[in-house]
Model the fold of this input.
Amino acid sequence: MQAELGHLLRDKLKDSCDRNADRAVRRAYRLVLLGAPGVGKGTQAELLMERFGACHLSTGDIFRAARNRPAAELAPGMVTALEFMRRGELVPDDIVVRVVSECTEQLTCPHGFLLDGFPRTVAQAEALKGILARHALRLDAVLDYELPREQILRRISGRRLCSRCGISYHVESRRPKVSGFCDNCGGTVIQRDDDRPEAVLVRLETYACQTAPLISYYRKEGILVTVECGETPEETFARSLVGLRSLAGE
Ligand SMILES: [Zn+2]
Done:
C-alpha cells in the first residue's frame, strides 16, 4: 500500500515535471527576427523552428515560392505583388502587408511563427500589430542578432562560389583543395560582386538605416531581445533562448 502510494506520487510528480519541461521548451513563440546580412539569421531560424515547431514565415521564401505557382492558386495580394516584381519594381509597403496578412495559416500556427524579412519599416510593424490583433494574437519577442561590422565583413567578403555548380567556399574556413578550383566539379571559384567589401559596406549601411527605427520601436514596446552572435550557431542559439526566457521573466 505504502509502496503503491509512493509510486503514484512519484508518477504524479514526474508527470507534472514533464509537463513543466514541455511548457518551457515547447511554448509557442511568435517572433520577429532581425539581423544584418551575414549574421547567420537563416541558421538561427532553422534552430528555432526545430526547437519550437514554429512556422517559418520568410517573405523572401514566400515570394520565391509564389513565382512557381499558377496565379489561380495565389491570394489576391500575392498576385498584385508578383505584378510589381515582374516589372522589376519594388513591392510597395501596403502590398507586402497584404501578402503577410494572407498567410493566416502560418500566423495562427499553434506552435507560433518566425517572421523573417518583415516588418522592414515602422509602418509595417504597426500593420503587423493590427493583423495579429485581428487573430487575438501579439508578438512575444523580436530577436535582434548583432555582430560587429568587421566580423560581418570578414564573413561575407571571404565567401567564394563555384561558377559552375554553385557550391560555396570560404577563404578562412572552407577552402577548395586546389586554390581557385571547385572540389566538386573543377569549375572556377569566384567571388560574387555583392560579396565584395565595398558592396557589403553599402548593404550594411542600408540595413542599419532601415532597421534603426524598427529597433527603437520594438525597444519601446518592451519586446526587443538583443543577441550578441557567438562563435558558433549553437552558441548564438543558446543566447537566444536565454534572452527569450529573461524577457518572459523565467
Ligand atoms: Zn563546382
Observations:
- Confidence is low (pLDDT under 50) at residues 1-24.
- The two ends are 39 Å apart (CA to CA).
